[in-house]
Amino acid sequence: MSKEKKAQIIDSLQEVFSACSIGILTDYRGLSAPEMTELRRSLRELGIEYKVIKNTLARFAVERAGRSELVSFFEGPTAIAFSYGNITEPARALADYIRTSKATMDIKGGFLSDRLLTARDVMTLATLPPREVLLARIIGGMQTPTISLLSCLTTPMRGFMNVLQARIKQLEEE
Fold it and tell me: pTM of the full predicted structure?
């Protein structure tokens, strides 16, 4: 590979490392070519890039992008799943693939904005509920005190109304 080609690859990787919202590094040892193609296809449908990168080029790119803490992850065969949107989707997709395909692929770790993620952190991200569910839980939590207050305030009035209706019914029967 020529120096110009390597420089272009490093520059494009540097841009990807700087622009993506999450990156998950995996050890793809043990995956056959058809399995790798299937994984790439399933990730591409979700808007996730999955690239196999030469370790030396990746090390240069992460250092230029200001993520030098990632250099230690580039040992052995390494592929990276990049996402620019939802941060839980790549973790969930990779964890599902590993679980369903019984692949020998491992998650090495990753990065989230300025934070370094361990393999355990990535698996925790994979188990988080979707954004919509979390928002619904927050809104439900915000509504609970209001509903409880309303119930406390209306209970005495409801009891008083029941007494009045019972008295009206008693008077009508007489």
Answer: 0.70
